[in-house]
Write a structure and sequence with these properties.
about 30% helix, 4-stranded mixed beta sheet, alpha/beta, binds ribulose-5-phosphate, 6 helices, 7-stranded mixed beta sheet, Alpha-Beta Plaits, Rossmann fold
Length: about 240
């Protein structure tokens, strides 16, 4: 369920802009995905130049990349707080006249459980995106991580909520995607999501749901890389 589209140049601009917000001594949440990867690489170069930071990865992928580029790693339970988290999104609600302005759909990389944990713990959550991620109303399928025993029961409850769930299938492996936490992912289409907060509350209540990919009232800023610069949305 990764988002297609979005130029690499735009992603790079967004990621590198976010890395500029990281100051010496910071504890940094390291999100997942191709846009955040540009931020992690930029932080690696800054570390080579003397920046001292500790990173908290949100997935196997971001941990591997952070190790490759030489970022010292830590964990949530070993720090007093997280200064800033940088993370991508599959869709960003971009209409300032709606209540869901700045809400996100995440989980295209099936990493949204740890991403939400780390992003929500940060004093400042910086989203990095390209213009293909912006939407007036969120409407992509919402990734929902479930414990394996729960997938059929949760799918039934999601249909009762008006959704159309699909168990995410793996590529390069038979059977379903298994998350870094050993769970499964249902991608649930709801059509246009006019009230992300209300849907988020209903999803969080379902037994067997570990975490869903609606991020409401969490982002502080989105950097949108474009063909020739970076646009900023402050929330
Ligand atoms: C992973 C995510 C990613 O941040 C999201 O899929 C965006 O990825 P990309 O920057 O590659 O488009 O939520 O779970």
């Amino acid at each position: 369920m990764k988002t297609a589209g979005g130029s690499d140049a735009a992603k790079r601009r967004a990621g590198e802009r976010a890395a500029q917000d990281v100051t010496d001594g910071a504890v940094v949440g390291l999100g997942t995905g191709s846009t955040t990867a540009y931020a992690i690489e930029a932080l690696g170069r800054a570390v080579d130049d003397g920046l001292e930071i500790r990173g908290i990865p949100t997935s196997f992928q971001s941990r591997q990349l952070a190790l490759e580029v030489g970022i010292e790693l830590t964990t949530l339970d070993a720090v007093d707080g997280v200064d800033l988290a940088i993370d991508g999104a599959d869709q960003v609600a971009d209409d300032p006249d709606t209540t869901g302005y700045g809400a996100l759909i995440k989980g295209g990389g099936a990493a949204h459980t740890r991403e939400k944990l780390v992003d929500a713990a940060a004093d400042r959550f910086v989203v990095v995106a390209d213009p293909s991620k912006l939407a007036g109303t969120l409407e992509r399928s919402v990734p929902i991580e479930v414990i394996p025993d729960a997938h059929t029961v949760v799918a039934d409850r999601l249909r009762e909520l008006g959704g159309e769930p699909t168990l995410r299938e793996a590529e390069g492996k038979d059977g379903p995607v298994v998350t870094d936490n050993g769970n499964l992912v249902l991608d649930c289409a709801f059509g246009p999501i006019d009230d992300p907060d209300s849907l988020a509350t209903r999803l969080a209540r379902l037994p067997g749901v570990v975490e869903h990919g609606l991020f409401v009232d969490l982002a502080d800023v989105t950097y949108v890389g474009t063909d020739d610069g970076v646009e900023t949305r402050e929330y």
